[in-house]
Structure formats: structure tokens, C-alpha cells
Design a protein that fits this description.
Layout lengths: L7 E2 L7 E2 L1 E2 L4 E2 L3 H10 L6 H15 L2 H15 L2 H15 L2 H11 L2 H15 L2 H11 L5 H13 L4 E3 L14 E3 L6
Antiparallel strand pairs: 1-2, 3-4, 5-6
Length: 186
């Protein structure tokens, strides 16, 4: 269905017509653009406009199919290299402010927060896809002490030990630095 010829008014109540975007398959509603433009001029939206936006968003997000579709779309969008870099850059900016670091540190000092983080991290590391992504992202190589140990093992036991500290081998969620590959159980 081609919606490009239909007229659609912006949700913020400004009266401006908006256009159908064929790439995103949705109306370009410009809500945020109008809102932030008004905020910069110290001219915020009226209460009526704010309520209209709020009610429109509530009605829109009640649709479970839309939420699922949007969630799947965001998973694809957020896994692009540009998005990952932008997310990383925004975290760097956030934590460069001392007040934000203190706020984060205070949150982590609470036992219930630490417990939730621990449970979430444990759940993540049980997923093989997660540690494969970590392995690719970290691009790990043996550090100096590991290289020394690997050289000693290769001198004493040639071709029997392999470096696996790059998450290439996982045992019960643990990642050993070295694995015996001689094929015998000892």
C-alpha cells in the first residue's frame, strides 16, 4: 500500500503534515524534533500537546505485535558496527563526568544491585553465542607470562599444549588458558 499520497498530521499538535517513509515503513512524525527545537528556545510544548503525545505513545505500544516487531528491528540495528561504536562512544562520554562515575559506583555498592548483575552475567556466560561474540570482540592473544609458560610447556611437552585463553575452549562456563591436546586422558 502506497501511503505517500495521504496526509497525516504530526502527533505533537503543531498542525504540520508528515510524510510516509518507505524505508522505515512508518510516518515520519517529527515529535522529537519539534519537542527539542522548542526546548532549546525555552518554549516547551504545552501540557495538552504533551498529553496528546503521551496518550498516542501509550496506544501505539499496547499493540504486542508492534512491540515484538520493534524489538526485533532494534536487535538488528543495535548489532551494526556503527551502532556498537556509537554506543561505546556514548559510554565513554558518560563516564568521563566524575559525578556519573560516583553515581554508578554508589549503585554498585548496594548488595541487591550486585546480586542482580551477578545473576545476569552468569546467565549471559551460559549462552555459547555470547562468549563467541566476546571472543571476536576482544581478539585475545597470549600475554607475556602466558607466552613464557606456553614456551616452557612446548619445550617439555612438544605439541601437547595449546593456548585457549581466547575463549576457544569453555568448560562449565570457565575458560582455561591452556589445554592439553595429546588426545590422552591423564
Amino acid at each position: 500500500m502506497n501511503k505517500s499520497n495521504k496526509q497525516h498530521l504530526c502527533f505533537c499538535g503543531c498542525g504540520e503534515n508528515v510524510k510516509w517513509n518507505n524505508q522505515t515503513k512508518r510516518w515520519n512524525d517529527y515529535i522529537h524534533r519539534h519537542y527539542w527545537r522548542g526546548r532549546k528556545r525555552n518554549n516547551p510544548l504545552s501540557e495538552e500537546s504533551k498529553n496528546r503525545i503521551k496518550n498516542s505513545n501509550i496506544e501505539t505500544w499496547k499493540d504486542k505485535n508492534l512491540r515484538k516487531k520493534r524489538s526485533e528491528l532494534m536487535k538488528v540495528v543495535m548489532n551494526t558496527p556503527e551502532s556498537i561504536k556509537n554506543n561505546s562512544d556514548s559510554k565513554i562520554k558518560y563516564f568521563s563526568i566524575p559525578e556519573n562515575r560516583k553515581k554508578y559506583s554508589r549503585a554498585l555498592s548496594k548488595p541487591d544491585v550486585r546480586k542482580k548483575l551477578s545473576e545476569a552475567t552468569t546467565k549471559l556466560w551460559k549462552d555459547p553465542n555470547y562468549y563467541k561474540k566476546v571472543q571476536i570482540g576482544l581478539n585475545l592473544f597470549p600475554n607475556k607470562p602466558e607466552t613464557i609458560i606456553l614456551n616452557i610447556l612446548n619445550e617439555l611437552f612438544p605439541n601437547e599444549w595449546k593456548y585457549t585463553g581466547d575463549f576457544s575452549f569453555i568448560i562449565n562456563g570457565k575458560n582455561p588458558d591452556f589445554t592439553n591436546i595429546n588426545g590422552k586422558k591423564s
